[in-house]
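Hi W., the zinc ion complex you wanted:
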Amino acid sequence: MTGRTHIMGGLAATTVAATLTDLDPVWLIFAGAIGGLVPDICHSGSKIGRRFPILSKLINSIFGHRTFTHSLLFLLLVRFLLSLVTNNTSFITGIMLGMASHFLLDSMTKQGIKLLYPVNITVRFPLTTRTGGAVENIVLLALTIVTLYFGKDIVMNG
Ligand SMILES: [Zn+2]
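Structure:
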């Protein structure tokens, strides 16, 4: 999936979460957009990879694309690293949800993800789409509608 779909995935997941929890919606949703991009640090052409080119190339050369950074192990590692630098639960939860939405979206593509890395099992949905295709645009539209629908409640309820 492309970067904008992943940003919107993170926004959709955290906007829904904001309506269901007492977490700070601003921190939650802001972090959701970032978390949606974090796993693609393994890919130097991605939005986040271009921002951190050396780190990105390093991770890519060690692990390859969509392996370690698209796994539960990496999710837990990021969770741990964040807990060392901040106790902002809303921010940390937003990053986690954004990353989880990224895993879910990439599971809809043919390549799938190595969710259980280092166990070499490819996780993907039975029906898959290709990155940048027409189906991705429909997914992007659906995510945008979810974000606006739930976002409206947050704005109106303060
Ligand atoms: Zn990815």
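The chain has a mean pLDDT of 94.

W.
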